[in-house]
Design a protein that fits this description.
heterodimer, A: 2 domains, 7-stranded mixed β-sheet, 5-stranded mixed β-sheet, 12 strands, B: Fructose-1,6-Bisphosphatase, Chain A, domain 1, D-Maltodextrin-Binding Protein, domain 2, 9 helices, 42% helix, Inositol_monoP_metal-BS (chain A)
């Protein structure tokens, strides 16, 4: 049996103020990052790591104090586990990204978030995302809708890619091993989409689909903590989330297409399949 | 110069334009909040934008011509109505986009703005860009620096593409006539840059290079009103704006490379040249 409604309610009431506080810590770092203009390259990442750790430690400490048997899956948590992501079990498991959009955090580009998802019996039951730079706190409980700052949010009704605002993680072109796959997909999706946008912020892009600001988003080669909370927000906002080839979404290997409508999602799937059959862009 | 504009006259142009742009803020915000909520039919979205575009442009043009009867107007709405290709003369000429980032405006993504530039003797001398949803007012006039909400802004010190967060109008891939060019250039630039963004507003992207949030931006095939105000803001913030070939920037055919530093601009131009050499590209 899945988590009970009262259990979800209790956990939501517990985590909400912590997500607010985590957002305050994130905002402090975001505002200070801009003052560190003179920092050398490596030092930027020391700043990010410090805030990443501070936020994660704050959340983990508070959660364990109240729920000592709960588990965690997160970027910093994985790093401390010799970069091996733990398996998802039936135990209540918090899937946390303390700062999504770390490059934006450094540059003060307002697409940054703390993302907190909760899985019970391998089902995502809570999603809370705080983007303090835009003063947006997104929340969803399984079966109870999605909200931004307490107001209901809903995906868009866009059904045709030619009309659609779509986001893509273009930064993935920076990674040689997956570059050809992504340039082909960008070519095909971009050729057909009215707008192709890129924010380098997976969590925020998922929230923007949930809120109807974006009509669709495709991402691959990312991590569970990038997608857990956003996945539930989109589902609770009435959207669809599948594997890029149309199968069920898997939080532990969270390659996905998400969209306001199944019709739009299917069109993107078709183009991704087509792209994957094409020859790659030359050279390199 | 045949008739140099005096400092006090330049300041007057700036002050009057600033007041008028601020006056349009509540109207733009009204439209932004209304978008997507009250319109369910696609055609109505674009009718909505047209209404606000026209109202804002009317306030700006009527105010500017009343204050400066000798000045001329080049604008998106004006060009659309007259179907006439505008020419830039030595006369003081306001180059206006009442809403830049219209797709963002419709979808309530906070990257949309009012953009007003002034050219005298064919040289850009005033730039004002106002993004009411994000409470960002960028302003500059020649020789007096660039400002965000009254605070001085300056470009980053990045000199190499490997350190750079670049911006690129990926949506141009949608246009068949310029698709191949843009896919190749995106491929080259995103492969080499540390990050790549696309915000869907050229005017604001120029401002984000001015603030150091991005380090470089390349775009072609846009209109003078997309680029004019942002170009003077960027140069007053210490950045460089040149034609894609490296020659002098021409606001009436604003194909450009914009960068935090001249060295970075050269890096970007080299990559664009390399992109032009890609021959193994087999997509069609």
């Amino acid at each position: 049996m899945a988590a009970s409604k009262s259990q979800i309610e209790e956990l939501y009431d517990f985590i909400y103020p912590l997500a607010v506080r985590a957002g305050e810590i994130l905002l402090e770092g975001y505002q200070n990052a801009g003052k560190a203009v003179a920092l050398k390259d490596g030092e930027f990442y020391n700043v990010v790591t410090a805030y990443d750790n501070q936020i994660e430690e704050f959340l983990v400490e508070k959660i364990l104090a109240r729920y000592p048997d709960h588990k965690f899956i997160g970027e910093e948590d994985t790093h401390k586990n010799d970069n091996v992501t733990k398996e998802l079990t039936d135990a209540p498991t918090w899937i946390i990204d303390p700062i999504d959009g770390t490059s934006n955090f450094i540059k003060q580009i307002p697409h940054v978030s703390v993302s907190i998802g909760l899985s019970i019996k391998k089902q995502i039951v809570l999603g809370v995302v705080n983007n303090p730079a835009q003063n947006k706190l997104y929340t969803a409980k399984l079966g109870q809708g999605a909200f931004c700052n307490g107001k209901p949010i809903q995906v868009s009704s866009c059904e045709h890619l030619n009309d659609a605002n779509v986001a893509y993680e273009v930064c993935l072109l920076h990674a040689p091993k997956i570059r050809n796959k992504h340039i082909k997909r960008i070519y095909h999706v971009g050729s057909n989409a009215r707008r192709l946008l890129a924010y380098s912020a997976v969590v925020d892009s998922l929230c923007m689909v949930a809120a109807g600001n974006l009509d669709a988003f495709h991402i691959e080669d990312m991590y569970p903590w990038d997608c857990a909370a956003g996945y539930l927000l989109i589902r609770e906002a009435g959207g669809v989330v599948t594997h890029p080839y149309g199968g069920p979404f898997d939080i532990m290997k969270p390659d996905l297409i998400c969209a306001g409508t199944e019709t739009l999602r299917a069109e993107i799937e078709h183009l991704i399949r087509k792209a994957d059959q094409e020859k790659h862009v030359g050279g390199e | 110069m045949s008739s140099a504009v005096s400092e006090s006259k330049l300041k007057e142009y700036y002050d009057v334009a600033l007041k008028l742009v601020l006056k349009c803020g509540p109207l733009m915000q009204e439209g932004y909040q209304k978008a997507k909520t009250e319109y369910k039919v696609k055609a109505d979205f674009y009718d909505l934008v047209t209404v606000y575009d026209k109202q804002i442009e009317d306030i700006l043009t009527e105010g500017l011509v009343a204050a400066f009867p000798e000045s001329l107007i080049i604008g998106e709405e004006e060009s659309a109505v007259s179907q006439r290709q505008a020419e830039l003369t030595d006369a003081p000429t306001w180059i206006i986009d009442p809403i830049d980032g219209t797709t963002n405006f419709i979808h309530r993504i906070p990257h949309c703005c009012i953009s007003v530039g002034l050219a005298i003797n064919k040289e850009l001398v005033v730039g004002i860009i106002y993004n009411p949803p994000a409470n960002e007012l960028f302003s500059a006039y020649k020789g007096h620096g660039a400002y965000l909400n009254g605070e001085p802004i300056h470009t980053s010190k990045v000199t190499t593409i490997k350190q750079a967060v670049i911006a690129y109008e990926i949506s141009l891939i949608h246009a068949a006539g310029v698709r191949d060019k843009n896919v190749k250039r995106l491929y080259k630039m995103a492969s080499n840059a540390t990050g790549t963004r696309c915000f869907g507003s050229a005017a604001l992207t120029l401002c984000y290079v001015a603030t150091g949030q991005c380090d470089a931006y390349h775009v072609e095939d846009l209109k003078p009103w997309d680029i004019a105000a942002g170009a003077i803001i960027l140069t007053e913030a210490g950045g460089t704006v040149c034609h894609t070939s490296g020659s002098k920037f021409d606001v009436m055919k604003p194909d450009c490379v914009c960068a935090a530093t001249p060295e970075l601009a050269k890096n970007v131009i080299s990559l664009i040249e390399e992109a032009g050499q890609i021959t193994e590209y087999t997509f069609k």
